[in-house]
Amino acid sequence: MLAGCLALATLTIHLFPDTELAKVLHKRTVDEPLRWLARFERRHMLLAGVLIVLMMFGGELLILAGGTDALIGIAWSTSAYMDAVVATWTVAAVASVRGAWSSIRAKSVRLAPNIGRRRVSVRAVGRARATMQRNAENDDEPAALKIAA
Predict the structure, then answer these.
(1) Over 60: is that where the pLDDT of 40 sits?
(2) CA-to-CA distance for 124 and 113, rounded, in angstroms?
(3) For residue 50, is pLDDT > 70?
(4) At a CB cut-off of 8 Å and minimum separation 6, what does 128 contact?
(5) Is a pLDDT exceeding 90 seen at residue 20?
(6) CA 25 to CA 5: how far, in whole Å?
(7) Which H or E element spans position 64?
(8) Could you write out the DSSP letters of every residue in 74-128?
(9) pLDDT tens digits, residue range 62-76?
(10) What values do phi and psi take at 134, rounded to 5?
(11) By the 8 A CB rule, do 147 and 134 touch?
């Protein structure tokens, strides 16, 4: 019965998209559930997964725990633990990839020293030398003597 109603609603939406009924059905059966699912985060998905597994295979646990409220509490703590494990694993994986990348880069620099380095133009070197300030500590140059005096 439900499958037939859903099939009729789907046919109405696809065959007569301009009717008011099709617009309302599309809003109620497509737009609102998608908006609701867009608010889901990783923790919600973990909780839903743990609850589904506990409801399917945890019949004895449901009886031992004393009801669905206790089962939801168990699922909540389990999903929070799993969320922390996943976050920690992700941070460790990123750190491992960074370490491997820096190791690969260091080995490639040893093999080919010019890879990955910026080439400095002759003009830039000349400008850098021209803009160097002379200080009074260097007594060998005549301009430094004027500064020191």
Answers:
(1) yes
(2) 21
(3) yes
(4) none
(5) yes
(6) 12
(7) helix 59-65
(8) HHHHHHHHHHHHHHHHHHHHHHHHHHHHHHHHHHHHHHSTTTTPPPPPHHHHHHH
(9) 777 777 788 888 888
(10) -95, 135
(11) yes
